[in-house]
Write a structure and sequence with these properties.
The protein contains 16 helices and 17 strands. It has 490 residues and is α/β, with parallel strands linked by helices. The protein folds into two domains: 137 residues, Rossmann fold (3-Layer(aba) Sandwich), CATH 3.40.50.720; 276 residues, Dihydrodipicolinate Reductase, domain 2. Helix 6 runs antiparallel to helix 15. The chain binds 6-O-phosphono-beta-D-glucopyranose.
Length: 490
């Protein structure tokens, strides 16, 4: 199937952390794919920046592409063209060396789109922005892209936002949440707002509850240093899971204009019922993995990966969120995420209410409620679970089957990585899929009391075996309400 590609304006993309893991695994491959697709104009340049000198950045780029782009997508001519766009400057983010060289490289057309991608620790955001300003690089068409984590609580997020806001106006700030760039997340918007079937049912009168799961099989591995200061609540729930919750729960925006969408998401975040000291034990579960098995191989526990046994950082969270508004009152959103779980599955399950009365006799079997399952990964697609009659001439027996739309089968195209869309949106200046400052702060305002209550409880995360579905308390959390986690996933 041919995909329409519209070339973006010429741009200079400056990647701080240009020799890092994110650049190698995600940013360079994503830009390569867009180049290969013909979306990047001839004049566009990518300037990687890093503290340590890099004598052969071209070799770094070639190696990153060889490792992280599928062989069938690697085209020698495009690789050469792409490598020729890249450049490197050794620069001290907290000192003065290298900045004049960067400024000299960027000199030229002041109206050209210029994006500074900060793929570095958040402690460097403020010093880098200050120097961007001091060297006159914050032109009116400049924009800054921030990777998470954006703070570790509301107060630190405000401090980071203030420092960035001193240099860049909000319309120039692109806070990445790569979940928003995922194909199926986009499809959630299409499902809800490009069809008339679902929207009339999309409320407490017809929906029983919603589940959002982001399960990973990987452990923290070499990210333990960062991860131990964060934990699953900050790393996944504060951003990715709450963003998904917002897209499911928000009112229809008047358009896909960035502020129209973000205004609606903000209202959802503000309507989240606070979880404090008294609710913490019944509405949240946190866990930490112990040694076990993953994909058939023995794996170490979190403490061994970290190199110490005294960490109270959670690698798993399950919680029950409530939204206090007309559309959702009384209809919980169950969220769960964790490392080293039994399978890699991210999905949103919209569980509809059971039928009010059955006209069938006992022979027909149980009647399960409808479910809409939006699978983000792997096997992206949408399944609508319905009851049908078991085929055949016998009596009326019912069966629960999915109306199954697997995107891989339906569309014969490579699924772009989230970063491809997001990077092009940065160049286009489209902020719809990026978090606005007030959204980030509202998310922290809901997360902070949970962190506080956990800290004061003096309890440690519940252990779970690597390769399981997390602590049994997470099953109890949902089963206490007479519901179960979606069986397709667990
Ligand atoms: C990142 C988290 O934001 O998302 C990681 O920091 C996590 O800990 C990752 O592994 C998950 O992303 P994805 O796209 O693989 O679901």
């Amino acid at each position: 199937m041919a995909v329409r590609v519209v070339e973006v304006s010429p741009f200079d993309l400056v990647v701080f952390g240009g020799t890092g893991d994110l650049a190698a695994r995600k940013l360079l491959p994503a830009l390569y794919h867009r180049d290969h697709a013909g979306q990047i104009p001839a004049e566009a340049r990518i300037v990687a920046v890093s503290r340590r000198p890099q004598p052969d950045y071209a070799a770094f780029v070639r190696d990153a592409l060889a490792r992280h782009v599928r062989t069938q997508d690697l085209d020698a001519g495009t690789v050469d063209r792409f490598v020729a766009r890249t450049d490197f400057v050794a620069l001290d983010a907290t000192g003065e060396s290298g900045w004049d060289e960067l400024a000299a490289k960027l000199a030229g057309d002041p109206g050209r789109v210029r994006a500074f991608y900060l793929a570095v620790g958040p402690e460097l955001f403020a010093p880098i922005c200050a120097r961007i300003a001091r060297h006159g690089l914050a032109t009116p068409t400049a924009r800054v892209v921030l990777e998470k984590p954006l703070g570790k609580d509301g107060a630190s997020a405000r401090a980071v936002n203030d420092a960035i806001g001193a240099v860049f106006a909000e319309h120039q700030v692109f806070r990445i949440d790569h979940y928003l760039g995922k194909e199926t997340v986009q499809n959630l918007m299409a499902l809800r707002f490009a069809n008339t079937l679902l929207e009339p049912l999309w409320n407490a009168a017809h929906i029983d509850h919603v589940q959002i799961t982001a399960a990973e099989t990987l452990g923290v591995e070499d990210r333990a240093g960062y991860y131990d200061t964060a934990g699953a609540l900050r790393d996944m729930v504060q951003n990715h899971l709450l963003q998904l919750l917002c897209l499911v729960a928000m009112e229809p925006p008047t358009s896909l204009d960035a502020d129209a969408v973000r205004d609606e998401k903000l209202k959802v975040l503000k309507a989240l019922v606070p979880i404090g000291e008294t609710e913490i034990a019944t509405t949240t579960v946190r866990g930490q993995y112990r040694a076990g098995a993953s994909n058939g191989a023995a794996v170490r526990g979190y403490a061994e990966e970290l190199g110490r046994g005294d960490s109270a950082t959670e690698t798993f969270v399950a919680l029950k969120a409530q939204i206090a508004n007309w559309r959702w009152a009384g209809r919980p959103f169950y969220l769960r995420t964790g490392k080293r779980l039994a399978a890699r599955v991210s999905e949103i399950v919209v569980a509809f209410r059971p039928i009010p009365h059955s006209v069938f006799d006992g022979q027909a079997g149980p009647i399960a409620a409808n479910r809409l399952v939006i699978r983000l990964q792997p096997d992206e697609g949408v399944k609508l679970w319905l009851m049908i009659k078991d085929p055949g001439p016998g009596g009326m027996r019912l069966r629960h089957v999915p109306l199954d739309m697997s995107f891989a089968e339906a569309f014969d195209i490579r699924h772009p990585d989230a970063y491809e869309r997001l990077l092009m949106d940065v160049v286009r200046g489209n902020q719809t899929l990026f978090m606005r400052r007030d959204e980030v702060e509202a998310a922290w305002a809901w997360i902070d009391p949970i962190l506080g209550a956990w800290a004061r409880s003096g309890e440690t995360p519940k252990p779970y075996t690597a390769g399981s579905w997390g602590p049994s308390a997470a099953v109890a959390l949902i089963e206490r309400d007479g519901r179960t986690w979606n069986e397709d996933a667990s």
